[in-house]
Amino acid sequence: MTRGSELFLVDSSGWVEFIGDGPLAEKFAPYFEREERLLVPAIVLYEVYKKLLSAQGSTAADRFLSAALRARFVPIDERLALLAARISLDRHLAMADAMIYATALAAGAHLITSDSHFEGLAGVTIIGPD
Known about the structure:
The chain has 130 residues and is of the alpha/beta class. The chain is 49% helix and 13% strand. It has helices spanning 12-19, 25-28, 42-55, 58-68, 78-91, 95-107, and strands spanning 8-10, 38-41, 72-74, 110-113, 124-126.
């Protein structure tokens, strides 16, 4: 559940669930209530737009863009790229996951995901079935 003025970063799995009305959509919904507290890294924009465009078509992809572009967009810069490289090596995360986690850390945001690759990392909430 969202708290105070805390920043949140919902990763690609959460966006796909929410926009695609997946089985976990309702659990992710509270994190989309306040766009000013929601961060969207460039890598999430890429992953979700591509997946939705491919699997569900332009209507779902455009619905995602409409919501994502109301949030705080976070571009990839050299600082994030270098932090992500270190995280990838230290935590054995794939490039996209490392970029997402690095963005959350750099922004002081809480990462919300259903991806078990983030299990055990500080500042992460993993949403799963009951």
